[in-house]
Amino acid sequence: MNITFTFRNLPSSEGVKNYASEKIARFQKYLRSPLEATVVASLERHLQCVDVTIVAGKKRFEAKEESPDMYASLDLVMDKLDRQLKRDKSTQTTRKRGATATSRAKQ
Known about the structure:
The protein has helices at 14-25, 70-96, 101-106, and strands at residues 2-8, 35-44, 47-56, 59-67. By secondary structure, the protein is of the alpha+beta class. β3 and β4 (59-67) form a beta hairpin. α1 packs parallel to α2 (70-96). The chain is elongated, with a radius of gyration of 16 Å. The N and C termini lie far apart (40 Å).
């Protein structure tokens, strides 16, 4: 697992790095190949913005969120990524079972 951090218009923070690393490490259970993550934290006017990109093999997941608090932005981004990864995982298991997502929805 490789995580790259970039801070724009604000000083680097070990607390933010550790918090984001712990959250991103939880996503490894959804992915077979090792993940590479890029976290960009920036300050735009009065909002703390976080942009996270996760690449695992051929798959790419991205999310961006902004709020007045950096940790709240990280939580919101991780929620978005969690939904994306779970949706992708459920699509894979549905295909393995022989049914498509549209045929299951009609039943």
